[in-house]
Amino acid sequence: MQSQGIGKILLNDTKDKRNELRLNVYRKNTRAISFYKREGFEIQSDGLDEATGEKEYAMVWKKEFLLFSKCSNIQIVLRAII
Asked: How far apart are the first and last CA of the chain?
C-alpha cells in the first residue's frame, strides 16, 4: 500500500512529538529519498550499511519554530531551528 498518505500521516504524528528526527535510507531507494525530502528531511552524510553492504544516506529533520516580535510597528519574523 503505497501513495495513500499513510506514511505522511504517521510521519506528521511523529514530527508533532519530536524536535528532531534522524533516519538512514538506502541510496537506491529513490522513492523514499524523494518522500523524505518533500517532508523537510535533509541528507547529512552518506555511508555504507555494514550489515548489508548497501550504500545509504543519513537524513535529518529539525522542527522549525517561528518567533514573532513587534518593534516600532514593524513585525520581525525570526526563524530558529531547535
From this structure: 34
Task: Please report the beta strands in the chain, taking only residues with DSSP state E, as ranges in sequence order.
Answer: 20-26, 42-48, 55-62, 64-71, 74-81
Q: Which three cell numbers stand for residue 11?
A: 510521519
Q: How far apart are CA 69 and CA 74, in angstroms?
A: 8
pLDDT in tens, 2-52: 677 898 999 999 999 999 999 999 999 999 999 999 999 999 999 999 999
What secondary structure letter does DSSP report for 5? Answer: S
Residue 72 has pLDDT above 70, yes or no: no
Q: Please state the pTM of the whole predicted model.
A: 0.75
Are 15 and 30 spatial neighbours (Cβ–Cβ below 8 Å)?
A: no
Burial class (CB in 10 A: 0-12, 13-18, 19+), 10: exposed
